[in-house]
Amino acid sequence: MAKIGYHASHEQFTPRDLLKWVQAAEHAGFDCLMSSDHLAPWSERQGQSGFAWAWLGAAFQATQRSFGLVTVPCGWRYHPAITAQAGATLAQMFPRRLAWLALGSGEALNEYVVGGAWPDKAERNARLREAVDVIRELWAGHTVTRDTPITVSEARLYTLPEHAPSLIAAALTPETAERAGEWADGLITVNQARDNLAAMIEAFRRGGGEGKPLYLQVHISYARSDGKARQNAFEQWRSNAISAFQSETLRTPGDIETATRNVRPEDLDTYVRISSDLERHLAWIEEDIAAGFNEIYLHNVGRNQLDFIDTFGASVLPRVSARCGVGHR
pTM score, two decimals? Predict the structure, then answer.
């Protein structure tokens, strides 16, 4: 059965507020939770970047739902041995609660801070593929040594997870999705045109992902009027109206602001599902389920988090469950 989840956006909100909101989302009936791991926000208007790994320990203690985390283990901010240790510790403390880690090849916005040249996509892909193997071997209790493309010297974890999280691929293009089909336990992508999503799914399956779960992070803007919903999207998410290449290579929030300076409110429909109409949001979710996504994580990009959580909990999630038979209810 498909599940409907809530996305906790560290780029936009303080960790303290996010803790309250994941508790509210659980109470409202969201089935699962996810977060992203950022060092910097996409824009100064968003204005936050709490440390997701520290926050997860508190969030697990405060809730009962499963979590997923999008992170980069390729040796810049985090060496794969550190990612493996962090994931193993949470998995040991809270069995089966860390359901998955979505691994990507990185964005300069978050990784370039450690210095050095930002590698091209081919090198980042090679480092990601190596990091996946390192993490899995460490979780299996092995001692790991590697020379390239990531140096690992006799690494071993002494605290191991009884149930290791899934390692899924974070992909924005069919090319990345196809490469990931061979190694990933599943795939996560973001909302885009239906034909693009279909191409993403087909590429993942073609690359070896047939039968593996599919996850979708959906950027939406809900408010009590269409005008307010569009205003919220423009204020908070126009910085994300960029290509996959730009999202991986722009280095600072200021760079992203410059790249998106000509974005207009009416340009955002490609990136955000904007509507005050709950029927429209319900129809979008039903289309996602019909496309084959197993877990759909809703990210309301506006600052009206509690209104979104309460409204969708009362008026959308029960109807999705009744129509599509989803979730834990």
Answer: 0.96
